[in-house]
Design a protein that fits this description.
7 helices; mainly alpha; 152 residues
Amino acid sequence: MVPSKQVRFWRTFFVPENTNTYDNIIYMLKLPTIFFLISFSLLAVIHIIASELFLYWRFFWFDIPMHFFGGAVVALGIFTLYDLKIIVKRRHLKRVPLLVLVFVVALSWEVYELLVGISIEANYVADTLIDLSMGLLGGLVGYSIGSSLNKL
């Protein structure tokens, strides 16, 4: 039975040529992907706990490490998208393009915070600049981790 055009189209993104299903499972479990899944899950759990316990409002500094960690998770996510052959090309895994992508995600998050009304403070500009800087710094750490894991 010949797969439909739609199935063949999606296979070009998800299934490398000349491989069987077992190879695809091993292919998907590369180290950057595993680190991304663990770090994303940890970030999500910490964020949920922090939101429930109002930690972002109790401690003015609490969002700073979260933006750092978020930048690292985004960078690892870009490596994961490359490993899964989704959207990201090899040229995006270089330092500058990856940090630009991390910056775009961090800036989008800051716009989201502004639209939702989370970040309306007297020192909004300083807070935003610190958040973006920490996101980029975290992205640099995530890039270092991801590129090191890709070499293994």
